[in-house]
Specification:
The chain is mainly β. It has one helix and nine strands; from the N terminus they run E-E-E-E-E-E-E-H-E-E. The radius of gyration is 14 Å and the shape is globular.
């Protein structure tokens, strides 16, 4: 599976939620039972410092397994402290064998409050 590309816009100081559905070309959703997810946003893909670090473990990502849904959740308290105006991200799904699969990637624009 090649990673899809989707650019995001997050308003600083506001709650942000975005849902993606993983489905095949016939629109059949993948069963994500047992999967976890992780997403990092950085100024550039090679930057050492993260702007956002979201996982299913820290509540920044939620998976609804039988619906193939992956939801990004960033509380307003986190978006309020972002100082960057732009960044890049990738979101990986980790299967039950601990193999990561890049699901989606792109740029994130952070707009002022």
């Amino acid at each position: 599976m090649a990673a899809a590309t989707k650019d995001l816009i997050i308003d600083k100081g506001e709650y942000y939620e975005k849902t993606f559905i993983w489905q095949d070309s016939s629109r059949v959703v993948y069963d994500l039972t047992g999967y976890t997810a992780r997403m990092q946003c950085r100024k550039t893909f090679k930057s050492a410092t993260t702007i956002l670090d979201l996982t299913t473990e820290n509540g920044g990502l939620e998976i609804t397994p039988l619906e193939g849904k992956i939801t990004i959740i960033v509380p307003d308290t986190e978006t309020a402290v972002i100082t960057e105006n732009m960044g890049v991200y990738d979101l990986e799904l980790v299967d039950t064998a601990s193999k990561p699969k890049k699901f989606i990637r792109g740029t994130i624009k952070f707009t002022e409050e």
